[in-house]
Amino acid sequence: MLNYIRRPEMFLFLLAGAMPLSMGVWMALLNNFAIEKAAFTGVEIGILQSLREIPGFLSFGAVLLLVLMREQTLALVSMLLLGLGTALTGFFPNEVGLYCTTVLMSMGFHYYETMNQSLSLQLFSKEEAPHRLGQMVAIGSFASLVAFALVWLALDISGLSMQSVYLLGGGVTVSITLFCWLAFPRMEGKVEQHKKLLLRKRYWLYYALVFMGGARRQIFMVFASFLMVEKFGFTAGEISIMFLINGALNMFCAPRIGRLIGYWGERKTLTIEYIGLIIVFTAYAIVSDPWIAVGLYIADHLLFSMAIAQKTYLQKIADPKDLASTAGVSFTINHIAAVVLPAAYGVLWIISPAAVFLTGAALGAVSLMLARMVPEKPGPGEEVSGFLVKTADVS
């Protein structure tokens, strides 16, 4: 029984559940805490959100730390930083304090995500990876539901302070992480990872897909929910219910989507995702019924699960020694859009909200063209449909 529990997938599943317990609490409380306790205005919130994205942009730094520690250790240290940053947030109800705890929490989150992608692609076989990654998404969705329920029970039912809820959410994450540190043996992939930053010319299509995914993520995260509030007048409670529905559906659908990726292959899966994205974003631009808007939001969220196909595409084409380095580089590429797009789209939103979503549909069309370049059976030397590209480094 003990050997069954100490399997690599159980290690990854536990951390997949521990992460949203902190992130869900942090996100659920952030706006109220920042306004009520730290007296933030829109200016300070904007600065905080920009600071939160900086560790994501600098995710390549995680690779350089592999000189000092193993990937498993770095994943655990990163999760401890995430939990600690969340737990400390309530104790610093001021501008500088909230900035510092946010950067600490964000650094832990992004470095963990980098190592999580690398470890999962090394420890899961190519055959089981789509389903296992889908299971991890489902576990994360369940943990997010627990976090939202924890916030509601603690604040509205038990009358606890926001400081106590932050401490509880971060403390649970730290506790699970310490258990994983003590209970699980050393885990490593079959090959030693490169401990330097590498850009491979033959991975260019993967890099392009990741960049476009980052652009899509910003439109969804920032403006889709903003549309619900500004145009349709949704309350905070109604937005929370929509989040809960999304989480429940992801719990059910993500493992099944993972199985479909294994059956369909990456090319077909990404094609379906981006066709769906074009339809959803175009509909966002013209929707006038709030219930249709809710349906679009839920469909948009479910399409995110299909992005698992990007990871399995990398697993199939990459030299196994490149996975950690490529994970770090890809997270940085993904966050380039996070630095540039929100401000630019914020200006465009003032002129025409519909234009924001129509440009999102155009980005989806570009992604669709990229998806059609993914081979039916990707592998080393078959990274792009119809092309044989030799391995090459760009320093």
Task: Give the helix/strand layout.
Elements: H1 2-5, H2 8-36, H3 42-57, H4 61-64, H5 71-89, H6 95-123, H7 129-157, H8 162-183, E1 199-200, H9 204-230, H10 236-264, H11 266-286, H12 290-304, H13 308-317, H14 323-351, H15 353-371, E2 393-394
Antiparallel strand pairs: 1-2
Explain this structure to me?
The protein is an all-alpha fold and 395 residues long. It has helices at residues 2-5, 8-36, 42-57, 61-64, 71-89, 95-123, 129-157, 162-183, 204-230, 236-264, 266-286, 290-304, 308-317, 323-351, 353-371, and strands at 199-200, 393-394. It has a two-stranded antiparallel ribbon with strand order 1-2. The radius of gyration is 20 Å and the shape is globular. The termini are far apart.
Global morphology? globular
Outline the low-pLDDT stretches: 387-395
The topology string of helices and strands comes to HHHHHHHHEHHHHHHHE
The structural class is mainly alpha
As a percent range, the share of strand residues is under 5%
- The share of residues in helices is over 70%
- Spatial gap, N to C terminus: 47 Å
Mean pLDDT: 84
How many strand segments? 2
Question: What's the main sheet like?
Answer: 2 strands, antiparallel
Radius of gyration: 20 Å
Number of DSSP helices?
15
| Strand order, largest beta sheet | 1-2
What would you say about this model in short?
This protein is mostly helical and 395 residues long. Helix content is 76%, strand content 1%.
